[in-house]
Design brief:
With about 475 residues, the protein is α/β, with parallel strands linked by helices. It has three domains: about 1-95, Beta-Lactamase, CATH 3.30.450; about 140-335, Heat Shock Protein 90 (2-Layer Sandwich); about 350-465, Response regulator (Rossmann fold), CATH 3.40.50. It is built from 16 helices and 15 strands. α6 (about 140-170) crosses α7 (about 185-195).
């Protein structure tokens, strides 16, 4: 037994708790049920299940055992045998004979850990965005400005990668949602260029961005999903053996009234990339073992879902004998000008920042106080401290993090709303439509998902609290 579990012989006296610690998470309920049943009978019971050895190697075990009570030692004993049947399991042809390993609670477990990771990653990323903004406002020499510009590009790449991981995870959890932001065209262009360039494995890459609407400087769109779609397509082109250069041309074109289109045309030489055909090769019951072999099919399926979600469309064309074209078109809202945006508040503003992440506290406080001398910020690390502070003082705006120890941001908001109508803006790492609805139902006035741009926060404060 010790050899199976990777321990030295007689290294310790194992208990049932020690045994359950190495049982695969998907099999724990079945194994607990097995031991419960074994306690009720003096007959030998049998079960097949998985264990983790050294937290990384998965083995299949056949357990044949019965429970016995030893009067002398006053202990419950497990009598029987353990057999490593990993080889037999992996080489079985009768799939019905393989043990049932699916845990219906696993998707919920995966969603829980995904949300935890999302929070732990997005909060510090948001702090970096804010601190970089503050650095850019200082008196930098030309060399420092060049380095901060490169850091900004690297941060944009990291944001694209983060959104990619979020979208991949959301795709498999069936929880993919549209997240539209107002973006300046000058910032949208490098986001799309950097995302697409990351998919090029070899050969030259050419990018152009043109705007047919001279009065439009901003658009409202889900740029993250559009950028991920471009990355996936160019990555697929590379995977399937592209030859020579890849050209991406993005164009903003008018439609009706305040609507327009972002059109991306990808031109390349190599095998035709038809997303629908590639996605059709994806097994309906994809397992972890299939993922690597189905990488191209998964990318194609995700891309189709992303573009459909943001109401986009595809078009395939040929450009000569060898070169191919793929065009993606998505609708966007045109922002001709922002009305009522003031650079800084004219009257004093007292802000309560409710945030438990220490670096986020420092970064957000510095960001707000550097924005204007009229800004005063009080920090509360928990919901309880926020409620106590609110009972003792008046605040013009509350910036409320949702993931708080003890009383969370939603419950704190409900309690504040019993006695105050002060504007409350949610700051959250979990960007979803459901999260936004939860915030509004709790009584919050607005919602910002991390990482956010400083200007987005400033404009919301001014809109809710006035100049």
């Amino acid at each position: 037994m010790f050899e199976i579990f990777g321990f030295k012989p007689n290294e310790f006296q194992p208990t049932l708790g020690d045994y359950m610690n190495v049982v695969h998470v998907e099999d724990k309920d079945r194994v607990y049920d097995f031991f419960d049943e074994a306690k009720k009978t003096d007959k030998q019971k049998r079960i097949e299940h998985r264990i983790f050895v050294n937290n990384r190697i998965v083995k299949f075990l056949l357990v044949q055992a019965k429970i016995s009570y030893d009067v002398k030692s006053n202990k419950i004993l497990l009598l029987g045998s353990l057999q490593d049947i990993s080889y037999q399991i992996e080489n079985r042809n009768d799939t019905d004979a393989k043990p049932v390993l699916k845990n219906p609670e696993l998707p919920k477990l995966a969603e829980f850990f995904f949300k935890r990771w999302n929070f732990q990653f997005r909060s510090p990323l948001n702090s970096v965005v804010q601190l970089l903004y503050l650095l850019e406002q200082t008196g930098l020499n030309p060399n420092q400005r060049e380095l901060t510009a490169e850091l900004r590009m690297a941060l944009d790449d990291l944001s694209v990668s983060t959104n990619s991981m979020v979208n991949y995870a959301a795709f498999f959890s069936e929880n993919l949602e549209v997240r539209e932001d107002i973006l300046e065209l000058k910032s949208l262009s490098p986001i799309l260029e950097n995302a697409a360039k990351a998919g090029v494995r070899k050969g030259a890459f050419h990018f152009t961005f043109s705007n047919e609407l001279s009065t439009v400087r901003k658009v409202q769109a889900d740029a993250g999903k559009f950028a991920l779609a471009l990355f996936n397509i160019i990555d697929l082109i590379s995977n399937l053996g592209s030859q020579g250069s890849v050209t991406l041309a993005v164009n903003l074109a008018p439609d009706l009234n305040d609507k327009g289109f972002l059109q991306a045309r990808i031109e390349y030489a190599g095998p035709a990339v038809k997303l629908e055909e590639l996605a059709g090769d994806l097994p309906s019951n994809t397992t972890l073992k299939d993922l690597e072999a189905s990488e191209n099919s998964i990318k194609a399926a995700i891309t189709l879902k992303l573009v459909k979600l943001i109401n986009g469309s595809f078009e395939y064309q040929s450009a000569g004998e060898s070169r191919k074209k793929i065009q993606i078109r998505i609708p966007v809202k045109l922002i001709v000008q922002e009305r009522g945006v003031i650079s800084a508040p004219k009257a004093p503003k007292k802000i309560l920042l409710v945030e438990d992440h220490v670096i986020s506290q420092i970064a957000t406080r510095k960001l707000l106080t550097s924005w204007s001398e009229n800004i005063m910020v009080k920090v509360a690390a928990t919901g309880e401290i926020a409620l106590d502070s609110f009972g003792k003082d008046h605040y013009d705006v509350v910036l409320m993090d949702l993931q708080l120890p003890g009383i969370d941001g939603l419950e704190a908001t409900r309690m504040i709303r019993q006695s105050s109508k002060a504007p409350i803006i949610a700051l959250t790492a979990n960007a979803s439509k459901q999260e936004e609805e939860n915030c509004l139902q709790a009584g919050m006035d607005d919602y910002l998902s991390k990482p956010f741009k400083p200007e987005e926060l400033f404009n919301r404060i001014l809109r809710l609290a006035g100049p």
